[in-house]
Amino acid sequence: MKKDFQLPVKKPALIDLGRIDEVLEGIDLSQDPPEDEHLRQYYFIKKTRMLADSLKADRGRDLTFHVNTFGCQMNAKDSEKLSGVLKASGFTETEEEDADFVLFNTCTVRDNADQRVFGRLGRISHFKKANRDMKIGICGCMMQEASNVEKIKKSYPFVDLIFGTHNIYRFAEYLFQVMSEDRKVIQIWDKTDQVVEDLPSDRKFSFKAGVNISFGCNNFCTYCIVPYVRGRERSRDAREILQECERLVKDGVSEIMLLGQNVNSYGHDLEDGITFPELLEEAAHIEGLKRLRFMTPHPKDFSEELIQVIKRNPNVTRHIHLPLQSGSTRIIKKMNRHYTKDQYIALVRHIREEIPDAAITTDIIVGFPGETPEDVDDTIDVIRRAQFDNAFTFIYSIRRGTPAAGWEQVPEEEKKTQFGRVLKEVQESARRQSEKLQGKTMTGLVEEVNTQTQGYVTARLSNNMIVHVPGDASMIGSFYPIHLEECRGFYYFGTVCGDRC
Ligand code: 5AD
Ligand code: SF4
After folding, report:
1. Which atom in ligand 1 lies closest to the alpha carbon of residue 225?
2. Which CATH architecture has domain 17-187?
């Protein structure tokens, strides 16, 4: 009879790649793969690691990998997990795209994201001609669309592995199949009810991290592909979220970003679940957590309770990203966003009264089907009245399968003209807001060495503003008081004016 499969810890509370050897030691490869999803993936990590060891010995060199990430913070977070599995399986990361294993983690929110992926895929095909053992994988949102998978099978036949968003936690298993068998692996699921989180993760930054609180979206904004490629909203258990945050803080993380497609509807799908404001409050009280961010809230769910939680917890950052999408009530309705122009303006005013030092940023789409210049006038009116501190402005992109794709479209030229008007307004607003900070001293977390200006590092303020200051790599991960000297639109040049704080 087979022994019960056991690990030192039942659900490896991993995250930390440093503990991987200890976890893998408890895995017996003489058994069949376990059914528990976590254990199963560790089983395949161990198998790939053995295979990688023999390949390294044969080739007399390391096995390298490169993960190319497109899209949002959720994708960046997923890529940390993909890299974690690759490192745990015996691969070494490289900046170059001619690695032994190259993985594209894709985004499909707008068409230009798709085109960038196809462009890069085309370019790496010649690396494969030089290295016949090279393996190429592609995953993420784009793969949830059958037409993209077909296109890759037909036009990019050198791709070895294709998988989607719902089964990303199975990556270790697919990696083993691709490395051990000379065949393509294509695995797309159309949904999952599992939340499998505790797998190895290779965090890009030691001092800041994202933590998933929910996956998917139930809002079905009529332009948006996300609910179709990421599925219905699934909230993670609050205890697991808070435990992950605590572990990260113990591990030296000072800034956490809670991540979800629509964070403030968190918990609606859980029986006895807590609400987002309650979760935020709990997380803000974690000892040693200096900064807590969240992305992305929806204006329709932005409650008074949430505003008060932000207000009374100074470590919740003074930055609220509040996607407007359009300032025209008529278009907002067609977008299925459930607020009016006036309600949005009132919400921004109220946030500014309650939390005057909070920066408010937004997303705007120009050229939504049926949008007239008068609708764009409304958007511009909201930009002026909300005084956005920054904004991402997008030209509407048709996403097949969404309701808006079937509606009468705005001509491309017209979209560009209107986009120019909005962009100008947004830039002026960002500059006006940024200039208000001139001469102030604010606390910045140094994130990286500045690659553009030698001898400088780049810090981020609580309000998400970027400041470049003279400094070196030893400052990365620390907080400093920074004097804001020269406004350059939506960022600053400044100087450190005190000790680490
Ligand atoms: N076209 C243009 N922009 C879009 N976004 C989402 N879907 C589309 C689309 N089809 C933008 C929204 C969203 C941001 C992440 O991407 O502004 O807030
Ligand atoms: Fe897309 Fe709307 Fe959901 Fe955001 S809230 S992911 S825009 S459907």
Report:
1. 7
2. 3-Layer(aba) Sandwich (3.40)
